[in-house]
Amino acid sequence: MKRTRILTYEEIHQKTIRIAHQLVEENYDEKEIVVIGIQPNGYRFAMELQKQIEAIDTVKVTLLELKLNKQKPLEGSIELKADAGLLNGKTVVLVDDVANTGKTMYYALKPIMDYSPHKVQAAVLVDRQHKLFPVTPDYVGLSLSTTLQEHIEVEYDSKGKASAYLV
User: Fold this and answer.
1) What range does the domain containing 68 cover?
2) Deepest of 28, 65, 96, 162, by most Cβ within 10 A of its Cβ?
3) Chain segment 108-117, per-residue pLDDT in tens
4) Does the reported pTM lie above 0.70?
5) Pairing relation of β-strands 32-38 and 91-99?
6) Are 142 and 129 in contact (CB under 8 A)?
7) Cα(129)–Cα(6) distance, integer angstroms
């Protein structure tokens, strides 16, 4: 199987910093931002995003994780551990590593909408632009047009450093 690296760790780090700056700029008047990472790699990306936001601004960043079956989201539960007060009236940023069709983010929004957030935004490291569901990320590290047969994989090494590959 042929793999082409499309993002190195350094490039991902730089894109994470840029997205953090965009988030802070767009939400300059917020006292708290709730960042929800979709397990597994979306949560890892969300952790890095949280670090970068906290490095550039004093806004409180609350990090939560969301679990769902990405291939078959209706088979099994969609888990978001959050108290009602934690999301009500807050800006929520849903984070994943790769956006393919929009399906994962679409289903991940369901438990968030059980609350009453002030605003919901989406951030992804790589957007493939093959939308089948009406979800378009607000913050994107890299937009990439691919064939439907190609896939993007984000991998983390033993030191927690990520690289992205076109497969």
Assistant:
1) 4-166
2) 96
3) 999 999 899 9
4) yes
5) parallel
6) no
7) 16
Report DSSP letters for 133-146, one per residue.
SS---SEEEEE---
Provide the token pair at 46. 């969300």
Which of the residue ranges 7-16, 50-59, 80-89, 101-110 would you say has the lowest mean pLDDT?
80-89
CATH number, domain containing residue 124: 3.40.50.2020
Q: Which of 151, 51, 149 is nearest to 95 (CA)?
A: 51
- pLDDT tens-digit series, residues 116-143: 999 999 999 999 887 788 889 999 999 9
Sheet of 152-156: strand order equals 4-7, 162-166, 152-156
pLDDT digits over 16-66, tens only? Answer: 999 999 999 999 999 999 999 999 999 999 999 999 999 999 999 999 999
3-state secondary structure string, 110-127? Answer: HHHCCCCCCEEEEEEEEE
d(CA 163, CA 33): 26
What percent of the chain shows pLDDT beyond 90?
A: 76
DSSP strand pairing (91-99 vs 119-127): parallel
Residue type for 140, please?
V
Q: How many domains in the chain?
A: 1
